Amino acid sequence: MNVLRVRLIGVMVCVLVLMIPIAQAFTVYDEGFPLTWSNGSSNATIITQDPSGLSISPFCGTKTALVEHQVGGEFRPVAAGNKSIVSHNALTFAVQSFTSNGVNPTTSLTAELYDTNMQGRGQVPIAAYIPGGSMQANTWYAVSIPLTALNPPTHIRGVGFRAGGHLVYAWDCVQIGYVEAFDPSRLYTDAIGSLWQSWSWNTSLSNSASKAYTGSYGLAMNFTAPWAGLYLHHNGFSTAGQQTLRFAIHGGSVSGKQPSVALFDAAGAVLAELPIHHYVSGNVIQANQWYSVTIPLADLNATNKVVTGFMVQSPTVTTMYIDDIKFSDVGGSTYSSGSTPPIVSSVLFDESIGTGWQSWSWNIATTSDTIRYFTGAIGLGVEYQAGWSALSLGTAGYSTTGKNTLSLKVHGGTTGGQKLYVRLYGAQGAALTTPLPLINYVVGRVITPHVWHEVRIPLSVLNAVNQTITNVEIMSETPTSVTFDDLQFENLLDNNTGVCNE
Questions:
Q1: FRET label pair with 157: which of 106, 214, 257, 496, CA 20 to 30 Å apart?
Q2: For the chain, what is the total number of helices (H) and then of strands (E)?
Q3: In-domain check, residue 398
Q4: Mapped to the 3 state alphabet, what secondary structure does 266-313 carry?
Q5: Tell me, what CATH number does 403's domain have?
Q6: Which helix H or strand E contains 462, and what residues bound it?
């Protein structure tokens, strides 16, 4: 088989930047076999380890293993004893194909680990970890494969590289080590971690070279709507052994922004949501500054939990930056002693939305209704624009201790007959009940047109006695318009306008 001259430009330059630096690595093959490793290849012959006479440039150092693989042949470095890989997370190596017969050089090329009994743990296609999924002949490719993809045991005796065709490959810089991108405790370091995915909404994300706290890039978060969110999803990360969540936040060009951070459990429910500015010096995110944030997992209700989501949410349209998002086994907190629990009013609406409450609504339009109001001079006009759209008022947390009633006034407008439903959410972001028909607590069990109706719902019916409430929803089954007023939590002797307790 003819060996062609290596191309060291073009594609090679591209793939070199994809090689992620590793730490705490042990060498499997580099400049020959290390002292405790030897050649255990099967149906594969090392042609030379000194290819200088063939005009081949090794990927690193001065030597490389040029191997002729028979069909199914495997280049297999074998260790003299068992090698622990429990503190490692990646198999990294460089590979180059030499062919002049038109055979696709990625044909059935696989990598595999061997356990202490020299039993293979399962072959993984190398092409899946090469940009574009294919190789050009005579070009080096730097490859990093997460050990999780290789069904790793705690200890190994060998590493195998198998070819499905009769081909010649060069292998170099084979190591078992640590790649930050494969560490599930790291959510963002110059890029979103490979084990995390963006499930963000109404948010444009980009790597920013001009806004990096460390490394080369920070993550620009362009929130394009109120309550848009950066959301990074994992299939299930255990926080066992971790103590803190750490990241750096930059508020952009305007001071005083108030984003929140939250973690989500295995069921996708929020564990806790916290104001980020409570964890920065002075309790204010100043313009054009980076802040290093450390939040104890206990504050996020995330100690020894399985986490599937990380969220940063903004109540306003804005751009901010975040970097170095990670879980850490080191304790600490940047909580500012000047931070005080947010004041959340028992009144959700009276002339305006109450202190500490925000609109999390969807598919509705709201107006300040100066024609229909029960008290004062303004009611809350709501146009439900789709079936099961909702007026949704959210907060970091309101305690119902000392209250026994959710009360409100509702006006049926010109049509009446609205089918509205009420639902409350608890501290963990989970619904406390199924949606409750509002008309169960309207005298006559119908919302009539041109009339105000007083509604008092016992918190016991809403499963909300002595609970921390994070969300109050009033949904409509169909598109319609109504006006609300005096929506609040109260403590009343007569706290039930329902015909029966349902």
A1: 106
A2: 1, 33
A3: yes
A4: CCCCEEEEEEHHHHCHHHCCCCCCEEEEEEECCCCCCCCCEEEEEEEE
A5: 2.60.120.260
A6: none
What's 36's domain CATH number? 2.60.120.430
Beta bridge partners of 238: 306
* 202 lies in the same domain as 219: yes
- Tell me the C-alpha distance between 321 and 210, whole Å: 10
Q: Which tens digits make up the pLDDT trace of 150-186?
A: 999 999 999 999 998 888 999 999 999 888 777 888 9
In a domain, 496, yes or no: no
- 22 in a structural domain: yes
**Rounded alpha-carbon distances, angstroms, from residue 192 to 184, 321, 379:** 11, 13, 45
What is d(CA 307, CA 264) in angstroms, rounded to the nearest whole number? 6
Question: Across 378-451, where does the E strand assignment appear?
Answer: 379-384, 390-399, 405-411, 420-425, 436-437
Q: Tell me, yes or no, whether 141 and 225 share the same domain.
A: no
Quote the tokens at residue 77: 């470095």
Q: For residue 374, which amino acid is it?
A: F
Same domain for 149 and 29: yes
The string of pLDDT tens digits covering residues 25-75 is: 899 999 899 999 999 999 999 998 887 767 678 888 888 999 999 999 999
Is residue 501 included in any domain, yes or no?
Answer: no
Instruction: Give the Cα separation of 177 and 123 in Å (integer).
Output: 19
The answer to pTM > 0.70 is: no
- pLDDT value, residue 138: 83
Domain that holds residue 387: 347-490
Report DSSP letters for 226-264, one per residue: TTEEEEEEEEEEE-TT--EEEEEEE-TTSS----EEEEE
Is there a contact between 300 and 274 (Cβ–Cβ < 8 Å)? Answer: yes
